[in-house]
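A.,

Following up on our hallway conversation. Structure tokens first:
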């Protein structure tokens, strides 16, 4: 059974950084594209960054992903956080090797999310 579990969210001051985790089970996450999304209260789910299957890491603006395939985990690094980054953060996959889904609707498997709150 494909499962994804996010963890590591919490409270951080504006300007700070945070790393959250995505633990995969039931599939070999290193072989597949994994996307990170967030959803703020009252807003639609927003795609942040995606890593392709087989890639060790990727960088997009204030966000970066790396992997520890020995643990079947991925990490999302959030830098330079502001209150507007407050949201529930999700990892997701559709068991594809490429990051070609146009939106969250292209992903079938999701974690439960982890809350990130940025405030002073």
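Then the amino acids I'd put at each of the 120 positions:
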């Amino acid at each position: 059974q494909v499962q994804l579990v996010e963890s590591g969210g919490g409270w951080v001051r504006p300007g700070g950084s945070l790393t959250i985790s995505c633990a995969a089970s039931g599939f070999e996450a290193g072989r597949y594209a994994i996307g990170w999304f967030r959803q703020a209260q009252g807003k639609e789910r927003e795609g942040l960054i995606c890593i392709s299957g087989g890639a060790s890491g990727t960088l997009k603006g204030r966000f970066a992903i790396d992997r520890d395939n020995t643990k079947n985990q991925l990490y999302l690094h959030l830098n330079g956080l502001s209150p507007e980054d407050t949201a529930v953060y999700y990892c997701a996959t559709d068991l594809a090797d490429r990051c070609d889904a146009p939106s969250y609707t292209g992903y079938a498997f999701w974690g439960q999310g982890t809350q990130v709150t940025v405030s002073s």
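The CA atoms of residues 14 and 82 lie 5 Å apart. Curious whether your intuition agrees with the design.

B.
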